[in-house]
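> Could you send the BTB domain-containing protein prediction when you get a chance?

Sure thing. Input:
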Amino acid sequence: MPTATPSRIFIILDDSTVREARDRQEEKRPNKRVRVDSDEEDAQDSYGSHNAKGPVERDPVYFKEDELANCVVRVRGWLFKIQADMLSCSPTMNSYLQDHIRRYGMPTEEKPFLCPNPLPTVDEYRAFLWALYATFDELSEPIHTNEELERLSHIITINKKFDIPKMHDWAVEMLHKTANNHVFMQSCSSASLALLVDTAKSNHKKYGKVLDATVKAWCNRVWDKTTPSVPAMQTADKHDLPELVGTAYYVHVQDMHDRQTSFTERGAAKIRVDLKLNNGQVMRLLTGYWSLVSLWERHRVKPLELPKGKSCSDKKHIECMANWNRRWISAVGWRRILDLSSADILGLLECLRDQLLNDDDLKAALEPECRLAGLEAIRALRTKTKEGLADHFFACV
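Output:
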């Protein structure tokens, strides 16, 4: 870390059981105010309810020993020694600091400046100081690791607690850049994706585009099998994200069928469930499987209604529909379709359309426009089904 005064841009000199309700009788009565001496009372008046007791330790990075560091700040059990004018980036912090200086003089180890409420965590304050001490080049560097993303998340959180305008603008811009960084989003861990979602959901109105970009990238990676489905399921349930719910649960159902199912000698299926899933998630998986299979069974025995082409007459279209139904029933019994899981509705519809697209008997029996309209109807059904996958995983009602 630089010891000389760097060029800074932020300094402004000058599914467990959840109880949704509880009886009022269960609410705890407020504790009586504890008697404090006059100095502690002054501190509480200035900073709010701040625990300044107990042992403290110097921060290994941000307890500066250079001559410019003239202000000792206490955050929980840690001491930070920085330049006092650095806190001028936050009107709230600066106001409390000036009050401390008027009462006690410059903050020292014996009488440190107590960071005001709402009290940040130590990690949040370290991230805040990192941003203050960072050079322009460091602040311009894209996010590469989960550790850097966590630091950005801490900076955003402390900006919600204290008004730090320039830092907030930088953090929001960096968050948007990260969510739209294709290289990072295609290679980062599930933990990073979950952190992006958590951060974006903390203020959906402000970070809505970040959330949309993150969910889209996460869904694509789950489809491509470049990231596991379980963390996506957990985050989707936590924040009620329908698109991610549908994608993650659907892909996990297919994985359960392909790799997590064994059979007894009598043919009973034994399903191995990921231990990270709770009972509610397992229930949604099983009911989703049943719903998807039921959907395919309905379409298998009842062909889609064939739209009428513009060039086809009413009389001719009766023949087209009969031939369409006949070829549909024939196609669903072909080996390629029978090899697919009955719960893989998207794969089944895609395979069915491909079979009918290359069916010479269908080409000969139908008016060209009717045939194309029927194939388009299957494509539209697949699209509609994919968009509504979450509907299958609501569990029992």
